[in-house]
Amino acid sequence: MKRTKIKELLARSAPLDKVLVKGWVRTKRDSKEFSFIEVNDGSCLASIQVIVDAGTPGSDALPNISTGAAISVSGELVTSPGKGQAFEIRSHELELVGVAPESYPLQKKRHSDEFLRTIAHLRPRTNKYGAIMRIRSKTSHLIHRFFEEQGFFLIHTPVITGSDCEGAGEMFRITTVKGTTPASEDFFGQETNLTVSGQLSAEMMALALGDVYTFGPTFRAENSNTSRHAAEFWMLEPEMAFCDLVGNMDITEALVKYVVSGVLDTCAEDIALFANFVDKTLMTTLTSLRDDAYVRLAYRDAIDILQSAKKDFEYPVSFGTDLQSEHERYLAEEHFKKPVFLYNYPKGIKPFYMRVNDDGETVAAMDLLVPRIGELVGGSQREEREDKLLERMKELELPEEDYWWYLDSRRFGSVPHSGFGLGFERLLMLLTGITNIRDVIAFPRTPGSIEF
Amino acid sequence: MKRTKIKELLARSAPLDKVLVKGWVRTKRDSKEFSFIEVNDGSCLASIQVIVDAGTPGSDALPNISTGAAISVSGELVTSPGKGQAFEIRSHELELVGVAPESYPLQKKRHSDEFLRTIAHLRPRTNKYGAIMRIRSKTSHLIHRFFEEQGFFLIHTPVITGSDCEGAGEMFRITTVKGTTPASEDFFGQETNLTVSGQLSAEMMALALGDVYTFGPTFRAENSNTSRHAAEFWMLEPEMAFCDLVGNMDITEALVKYVVSGVLDTCAEDIALFANFVDKTLMTTLTSLRDDAYVRLAYRDAIDILQSAKKDFEYPVSFGTDLQSEHERYLAEEHFKKPVFLYNYPKGIKPFYMRVNDDGETVAAMDLLVPRIGELVGGSQREEREDKLLERMKELELPEEDYWWYLDSRRFGSVPHSGFGLGFERLLMLLTGITNIRDVIAFPRTPGSIEF
């Protein structure tokens, strides 16, 4: 007989004569005549209650069936007389599959997030971390489905790169040689790094295939131990040919709404856990993200708002300054109380590939600011004009020869195009209210931390 | 007006008064009264024919509209009088968006794969490479959809790893320091590498969530320049709790059939290109993969077949030898003429984590062998018994302390579980008949080759 997952059983509308369930014991209570076992199989947050009569085949294993043990139960799915759950299982046969001795670290009590990080291999067996992993999976699937429905092609841009294309951040170096062996004798014959962005590669594909996206691991070697930075994280980077900044914001807004709406619809139980125990404002944030029209505001106007705000910011702002998280959050959380696109940023604080506006001092950049997180998305219309691009590269002293292929795309059939980057873990923090990036990644990598 | 993609236009059942198309010129023919332009926008293999009457607004740009140029055309979608295509566009207005001077490398003539690798940033603009990128995208989407439908959770296992868990191959080292600085002063405080497999991490998640899969970039620092090896490639690794070797083969077979069937249904035009111009046997292979029941054969019986085969193999075989590609292909291509699972391999040629069978000399491993490729999938039931696992680790002199977390999973609620690895690029080579792995990856990484 094939096992049925608990998620399927609990979604049924009618009882069932014969079921086989396999999973891990969350709790067990014994009385003289029965034992009650809560079994969870990871398919959903809820466990199912199993009732084992004394004398049931296999019930001699009951003394060894403790929290964390794996069991197999065949029996009857019956309507539950208790509150909370529609069904429970009357066991006909019980099997202890794998014991969990008393040293099992996840005994029934609350554990701190800090402690659970030290047992990242076991923490997905808890309610909270099981829930975040299911939401992470569903969010990924929703992203893929959104882009597939919109006619985008998924591309895989390389992790190993020979260029530091954007200067987006500190890079990890990759090598197969030791000590002072010159890079020319290394595996690739030159210095190579872990990618900080797949954008430039994605542009090449968009200029052939139309609409594309890359979604994969991205790296920063920044030695800062904060709750918002990891050395390895996932980034979504769509790139659209024949698309301007307005189209870029349209797609960003449609994507975020699609994902939030999909998660609310399909992960209701897991989301409720976070809304109840992690962030009391979560449902308000998520319904706003799903239902509100996002504000679209020029950077220049944002500066005006921030300057006249009755608020003591740590960092002062004026035209030309890069906004800090405190400013971004003020705009989204306090001033507008909903997501805000800022666009047309000063040229000086943005990378070389962004399209220079007619005013000569701003570029067609946009950031999406959201409550609690600040910047969720950063994007731009790309500079498609070869002469303007070369001008910017000269200003920033970027060596033309390193970018020959990128420049080629502006020489041969260049078209207006746009794209953005969305930090996947930031999206997950937004969706769950979790405040430490280490807790939305299965096995996080941060300075000094490489276990598992 | 919003542009419509060519794929959508060609799928229509009726003409349309007003359309806007944007794309790249494949060819142009001029006559006195008309010009005929084939426009491709990457949404599908087919281009659409545009007819521009002399004197149409924008037609003064015609002399500069050459192969590779980007144009925008508004006009009427009319039934095509010619053969081959249902519709064409009568242009009302033409705009040259981006020129392509004569130096554009993709003029209309056949180019060698070798040459096209040197312009990997432009090659997706050709029929063949556009097709492979669309098939790559669709195949990814089908994989995600298959597992989502089966209730699997997508997990992201880390690329940066502190362990060389399997000894699966040579690894790239990651560093942020130079020269002879000791690893203890490096970013992670120890030596770290690029992952060769996410399996051990995936097992931890399967033992919490049930059925999971990881699908991401994987690395080998093997300095071999062959048509089948790349330093960076994508690997799919599902892992299933409460699943034995038979279940493992069942899921593998269902997945491959689902993907092949889906690609045949949704990428018919692109697949036809490969069937016509790359591999004349492609359709036979693909329909066999979709329709035939896969053979399931014990390794021991395969040895018998190979030993009695009327065929001169370069390498002799006997029980205990690792099969070579020639043996794998003989079984799948000549002897059975369909996909073959081999299972129960000798313990000595397989890694420590595979479950030892009761005979004490074989392990519950399985490989899926397919025509032309040889091994497409390698998997096993994992050793869930702590004592047996420790025994194997001692035999292979693996340090216990490095695997404390892996061993934990056998101490706390251990259950029978299985999984496999599928090389994504091998699958794409199987689906297209392409024989060089460099040609199914957007920007391939091989020894000495890191451009783009």
Give structural notes.
- The structure is a homodimer.
- In chain A, the strands form 3 sheets. In chain A, strands 6-10-11-16-15-14-13-12 form an 8-stranded mixed beta sheet. Chain A has a 5-stranded mixed β-barrel with strand order 1-2-3-5-4.
- Chain A has helices at about 5-10, 115, 125-150, 200-210, 245-265, 270-275, 280-290, 300-305, 325-335, 385-395, 405-410, 425-430, and strands spanning about 15-30, 35-40, 50-55, 70-80, 85-100, 155, 160, 175, 190-195, 210-220, 230-240, 295-300, 340-345, 360-370, 375-380, 415-425.
- The first copy, chain A, is of the alpha+beta class and about 450 residues long.
- Strand 8 of chain A pairs antiparallel with strand 8 (about 175) of chain B.
Q: Decide which structural class fits the backbone of chain A.
A: alpha+beta
Largest sheet of chain A, in brief, is:
8 strands, mixed
Strand order of the largest sheet of chain A: 6-10-11-16-15-14-13-12
Helix content of chain A: 25-40%
Note the run of SSEs of chain A as H and E: HEEEEEHHEEEEHEEHHHEHHEEEHHEH
Organism (chains A, B): Desulfoluna limicola
Subunit structure (chains A, B): Homodimer.
Keywords (chains A, B): Aminoacyl-tRNA synthetase, ATP-binding, Cytoplasm, Ligase, Nucleotide-binding, Protein biosynthesis
EC number (chains A, B): 6.1.1.22
